[in-house]
Amino acid sequence: MKKQFFTILLSSFVALSVAQTAINFTATDCSGISHDLFSDLDSGKVVVICWVMPCSACVSGALTTYNVVQSYGSTYPGKVIMYLCDDYANTVCSSLNSWADAHGLSRAARFSNASINMTDYGTTGMPKIVVLGGADHAVLYNANYTVNASSLQGAIDVALTTTGIHDIDGVVSAFNLIPNPASTSADIKFNLTKDAEINIDLFNIQGELINHIYSGRLASGENNMPINVSAYRAGTYFVKLSEGNKSRILNLVVTQ
Protein backbone atom coordinates (compact mmCIF):
# COMPACT_ATOMS: atom_id res chain seq x y z
CA MET A 1 0.00 0.00 0.00
CA LYS A 2 1.36 3.38 -0.93
CA LYS A 3 1.96 5.74 1.93
CA GLN A 4 0.36 9.14 1.73
CA PHE A 5 2.62 11.76 0.13
CA PHE A 6 3.48 14.30 2.82
CA THR A 7 4.06 17.92 1.82
CA ILE A 8 7.04 19.67 3.36
CA LEU A 9 7.33 23.43 2.92
CA LEU A 10 10.73 24.66 1.86
CA SER A 11 10.92 27.11 4.74
CA SER A 12 10.91 24.24 7.24
CA PHE A 13 14.11 22.77 5.92
CA VAL A 14 17.35 23.53 4.18
CA ALA A 15 18.00 26.93 2.60
CA LEU A 16 20.91 27.74 0.33
CA SER A 17 22.96 29.15 3.21
CA VAL A 18 22.74 25.92 5.25
CA ALA A 19 25.43 23.26 5.16
CA GLN A 20 24.54 20.37 2.84
CA THR A 21 27.19 18.22 4.52
CA ALA A 22 27.99 17.86 8.19
CA ILE A 23 30.71 19.85 9.96
CA ASN A 24 33.07 17.63 11.91
CA PHE A 25 33.84 18.04 15.59
CA THR A 26 35.56 16.14 18.36
CA ALA A 27 33.88 16.72 21.72
CA THR A 28 33.71 15.14 25.15
CA ASP A 29 30.19 14.43 26.41
CA CYS A 30 28.89 14.98 29.93
CA SER A 31 29.97 11.44 30.87
CA GLY A 32 33.58 12.14 29.90
CA ILE A 33 33.44 10.14 26.65
CA SER A 34 35.09 11.61 23.54
CA HIS A 35 33.14 11.58 20.27
CA ASP A 36 34.34 12.35 16.75
CA LEU A 37 31.36 13.02 14.50
CA PHE A 38 32.90 11.82 11.25
CA SER A 39 34.18 8.66 12.95
CA ASP A 40 30.63 7.89 14.06
CA LEU A 41 29.25 8.54 10.57
CA ASP A 42 32.02 6.59 8.85
CA SER A 43 31.31 3.62 11.11
CA GLY A 44 27.78 3.45 9.70
CA LYS A 45 25.89 5.34 12.38
CA VAL A 46 23.15 7.91 11.86
CA VAL A 47 23.62 10.87 14.20
CA VAL A 48 20.64 12.97 15.27
CA ILE A 49 21.66 16.21 16.99
CA CYS A 50 19.15 18.11 19.10
CA TRP A 51 20.11 21.51 20.54
CA VAL A 52 18.17 22.78 23.55
CA MET A 53 18.41 25.83 25.84
CA PRO A 54 17.32 23.83 27.88
CA CYS A 55 13.86 25.22 28.55
CA SER A 56 10.22 24.18 28.81
CA ALA A 57 9.61 25.11 25.16
CA CYS A 58 12.28 22.59 24.13
CA VAL A 59 10.69 19.59 25.82
CA SER A 60 8.16 18.56 23.19
CA GLY A 61 10.53 18.66 20.21
CA ALA A 62 13.38 17.04 22.11
CA LEU A 63 11.16 14.25 23.41
CA THR A 64 9.67 13.58 19.97
CA THR A 65 13.19 13.37 18.56
CA TYR A 66 14.29 11.05 21.35
CA ASN A 67 11.31 8.73 20.91
CA VAL A 68 11.87 8.46 17.15
CA VAL A 69 15.55 7.65 17.69
CA GLN A 70 14.73 5.04 20.34
CA SER A 71 12.24 3.36 17.99
CA TYR A 72 15.22 2.06 15.95
CA GLY A 73 16.79 0.35 18.96
CA SER A 74 15.53 -3.15 18.19
CA THR A 75 15.87 -3.13 14.40
CA TYR A 76 19.12 -1.13 14.15
CA PRO A 77 20.79 -1.53 17.55
CA GLY A 78 23.46 1.09 18.12
CA LYS A 79 23.05 2.51 14.61
CA VAL A 80 20.86 5.57 15.29
CA ILE A 81 22.16 7.77 18.08
CA MET A 82 21.10 11.08 19.57
CA TYR A 83 23.33 13.90 20.76
CA LEU A 84 21.52 16.26 23.14
CA CYS A 85 23.45 19.53 23.13
CA ASP A 86 23.22 22.77 25.05
CA ASP A 87 22.64 25.55 22.54
CA TYR A 88 25.65 27.77 23.32
CA ALA A 89 27.52 25.47 25.71
CA ASN A 90 26.83 27.85 28.60
CA THR A 91 24.81 25.37 30.67
CA VAL A 92 26.86 23.14 32.95
CA CYS A 93 26.54 19.39 32.45
CA SER A 94 24.90 18.85 35.83
CA SER A 95 22.01 21.15 34.86
CA LEU A 96 21.69 19.62 31.39
CA ASN A 97 21.70 16.13 32.90
CA SER A 98 19.00 17.07 35.40
CA TRP A 99 16.82 18.54 32.64
CA ALA A 100 17.28 15.49 30.39
CA ASP A 101 16.56 13.02 33.19
CA ALA A 102 13.47 14.94 34.29
CA HIS A 103 12.00 14.72 30.79
CA GLY A 104 12.82 11.10 29.99
CA LEU A 105 15.81 11.57 27.68
CA SER A 106 17.87 9.04 29.57
CA ARG A 107 19.76 7.40 26.69
CA ALA A 108 20.81 10.49 24.75
CA ALA A 109 24.47 11.47 24.93
CA ARG A 110 24.59 14.96 26.47
CA PHE A 111 27.03 17.70 25.53
CA SER A 112 27.82 21.21 26.67
CA ASN A 113 30.59 21.87 24.18
CA ALA A 114 30.97 24.90 21.90
CA SER A 115 32.51 22.81 19.10
CA ILE A 116 29.02 21.41 18.37
CA ASN A 117 27.76 24.60 16.74
CA MET A 118 24.13 24.76 15.62
CA THR A 119 24.80 27.80 13.41
CA ASP A 120 26.81 25.47 11.16
CA TYR A 121 23.34 24.37 10.03
CA GLY A 122 21.67 27.74 9.54
CA THR A 123 19.39 29.65 11.85
CA THR A 124 18.97 28.75 15.49
CA GLY A 125 15.91 27.09 17.01
CA MET A 126 14.74 25.82 20.37
CA PRO A 127 15.01 23.01 19.80
CA LYS A 128 16.99 22.63 16.58
CA ILE A 129 17.32 19.15 15.09
CA VAL A 130 19.50 17.80 12.29
CA VAL A 131 19.94 14.27 10.93
CA LEU A 132 23.39 13.38 9.62
CA GLY A 133 24.36 10.19 7.82
CA GLY A 134 25.88 8.42 4.87
CA ALA A 135 29.35 8.07 3.42
CA ASP A 136 29.27 11.71 2.29
CA HIS A 137 28.13 12.97 5.73
CA ALA A 138 24.92 14.41 4.33
CA VAL A 139 22.51 16.67 6.21
CA LEU A 140 19.20 14.86 5.68
CA TYR A 141 16.91 16.82 8.00
CA ASN A 142 17.10 20.33 9.43
CA ALA A 143 14.23 21.71 11.52
CA ASN A 144 13.71 24.49 14.03
CA TYR A 145 11.25 24.68 16.94
CA THR A 146 8.88 21.89 15.89
CA VAL A 147 9.52 18.30 14.87
CA ASN A 148 7.37 16.20 12.56
CA ALA A 149 7.93 12.62 13.69
CA SER A 150 7.11 11.11 10.28
CA SER A 151 9.52 13.43 8.48
CA LEU A 152 12.24 12.81 11.03
CA GLN A 153 11.78 9.06 10.71
CA GLY A 154 11.85 9.32 6.93
CA ALA A 155 15.15 11.18 7.01
CA ILE A 156 16.64 8.54 9.29
CA ASP A 157 15.37 5.80 6.97
CA VAL A 158 17.10 7.48 4.02
CA ALA A 159 20.29 7.80 6.05
CA LEU A 160 20.17 4.10 6.90
CA THR A 161 20.08 3.21 3.20
CA THR A 162 23.47 4.87 2.73
CA THR A 163 25.30 4.00 5.95
CA GLY A 164 27.87 1.24 5.95
CA ILE A 165 27.91 1.22 2.14
CA HIS A 166 31.25 1.11 0.36
CA ASP A 167 32.42 4.47 -0.92
CA ILE A 168 31.41 5.14 -4.51
CA ASP A 169 34.10 7.78 -5.07
CA GLY A 170 36.34 5.29 -6.87
CA VAL A 171 33.70 4.99 -9.60
CA VAL A 172 31.78 8.28 -9.47
CA SER A 173 33.14 11.81 -9.19
CA ALA A 174 31.76 15.34 -9.57
CA PHE A 175 28.28 14.22 -8.47
CA ASN A 176 26.12 17.35 -8.50
CA LEU A 177 22.61 18.72 -9.02
CA ILE A 178 22.17 21.83 -11.17
CA PRO A 179 20.27 24.00 -10.44
CA ASN A 180 19.59 23.37 -6.78
CA PRO A 181 17.06 24.61 -5.66
CA ALA A 182 15.03 23.81 -8.77
CA SER A 183 11.45 24.68 -9.73
CA THR A 184 10.95 22.94 -13.09
CA SER A 185 13.90 20.67 -13.84
CA ALA A 186 17.37 19.78 -12.63
CA ASP A 187 20.31 17.99 -14.16
CA ILE A 188 21.99 15.14 -12.28
CA LYS A 189 25.63 15.43 -13.32
CA PHE A 190 28.44 12.99 -12.57
CA ASN A 191 31.56 11.44 -14.06
CA LEU A 192 32.26 7.71 -14.26
CA THR A 193 35.79 6.34 -14.19
CA LYS A 194 34.59 3.24 -16.06
CA ASP A 195 31.47 1.83 -17.71
CA ALA A 196 29.07 0.91 -14.93
CA GLU A 197 25.55 -0.24 -14.06
CA ILE A 198 23.94 2.78 -12.42
CA ASN A 199 20.70 3.25 -10.50
CA ILE A 200 19.32 6.70 -9.67
CA ASP A 201 16.36 7.07 -7.30
CA LEU A 202 14.45 9.99 -5.82
CA PHE A 203 13.13 9.85 -2.24
CA ASN A 204 10.91 12.26 -0.36
CA ILE A 205 11.61 13.53 3.14
CA GLN A 206 9.77 10.53 4.61
CA GLY A 207 12.19 8.13 2.96
CA GLU A 208 9.64 6.91 0.42
CA LEU A 209 10.82 6.09 -3.11
CA ILE A 210 8.83 8.41 -5.38
CA ASN A 211 10.71 8.12 -8.68
CA HIS A 212 13.03 5.49 -10.12
CA ILE A 213 14.89 7.89 -12.39
CA TYR A 214 17.30 5.55 -14.16
CA SER A 215 18.58 1.99 -14.20
CA GLY A 216 21.07 0.75 -16.74
CA ARG A 217 24.62 0.78 -18.04
CA LEU A 218 26.35 4.11 -18.64
CA ALA A 219 29.62 4.83 -20.38
CA SER A 220 32.68 6.21 -18.66
CA GLY A 221 33.15 9.96 -18.70
CA GLU A 222 30.69 12.78 -18.11
CA ASN A 223 27.03 11.83 -17.70
CA ASN A 224 23.97 14.06 -17.42
CA MET A 225 20.54 12.85 -16.31
CA PRO A 226 17.68 15.41 -16.43
CA ILE A 227 14.81 15.17 -13.96
CA ASN A 228 11.49 17.00 -14.20
CA VAL A 229 10.49 18.34 -10.78
CA SER A 230 7.59 20.56 -11.82
CA ALA A 231 5.02 18.07 -10.48
CA TYR A 232 6.60 17.84 -7.01
CA ARG A 233 5.54 19.90 -4.04
CA ALA A 234 8.00 22.38 -2.55
CA GLY A 235 10.33 20.67 -0.12
CA THR A 236 13.52 18.68 0.38
CA TYR A 237 14.14 15.47 -1.57
CA PHE A 238 17.06 13.05 -1.82
CA VAL A 239 18.73 11.83 -5.01
CA LYS A 240 20.49 8.51 -4.49
CA LEU A 241 23.03 7.30 -7.05
CA SER A 242 24.11 3.66 -6.73
CA GLU A 243 26.59 1.36 -8.46
CA GLY A 244 26.34 -2.15 -7.07
CA ASN A 245 26.64 -1.86 -3.29
CA LYS A 246 28.17 1.61 -3.53
CA SER A 247 26.03 4.68 -3.10
CA ARG A 248 25.94 8.43 -2.62
CA ILE A 249 23.10 10.79 -1.83
CA LEU A 250 22.48 14.50 -2.41
CA ASN A 251 19.77 16.84 -1.16
CA LEU A 252 17.51 18.36 -3.81
CA VAL A 253 15.40 21.36 -2.84
CA VAL A 254 12.26 21.91 -4.94
CA THR A 255 10.65 25.36 -5.01
CA GLN A 256 7.28 26.19 -6.55
UniProtKB/TrEMBL annotation:
Signal peptide: 1-19
UniProt KW keywords: Signal
Keyword Signal assigned: yes
Cross-referenced InterPro entries: Secre_tail (IPR026444)
Xref: Pfam families: Por_Secre_tail
Domain of life: Bacteria
Domain Secretion system C-terminal sorting: 179-249
The protein's name in its UniProt record: T9SS type A sorting domain-containing protein
Taxonomic lineage of the native organism: Bacteria, Pseudomonadati, Bacteroidota, Saprospiria, Saprospirales
